[in-house]
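U., I forgot to send this yesterday:
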Amino acid sequence: MPTLVPKEHEIERKWFIVDADGQVLGRLASRVASILRGKHKQTFVPHLDVGDHVVVVNAAKVHLTGRKMRDKLYRWHSGYIGGLREVNAETMLRTHPERVIEWAVQGMLPKNRLGKAMAKKLKVYRDSKHPHQAQQPETLTTKPEVR
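Result:
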C-alpha cells in the first residue's frame, strides 16, 4: 500500500477554540501544539503543515503548578550589549499572559520554517473576547487539571 501524502489544496483546516481558564500551562500547550501540527488527523505527515487553527481565550487565567509562578524565568535578548531581559512567570502573566502560552506552544513545535508557519495559526487572547466568530470555531473540551 502506498503512503498517501495530501496535496496543499486537499488539506482542510478547521478552527478550534480552547478555554485556558483553570488549565495547567504545560498540558494545555502540548494539546494545542498537537492540533497545530495536525497529529490528530489521519492525513498527518511530519514534513507538511496539515494542522488546524487554534484560538486560546482567557490566557490570563492559566495555571502554573508548584513554585513555577515564582521560580520560572522568561529570558530574551534585545540584540544589544547588555540587552538580556529576565522576568519571572508571575510578572509575565500579569503583564503579557498571551506570551506565556505562545512561548510554551512554540517550544513544542519544530524549530524550522515549518514550525513558524504552524505558530502563525495560533491566536491567543487575554480574556474571552476574540474576533474569530466568523470562522465558527469548534469548542475543544478539556477538563481543568487544577484541584
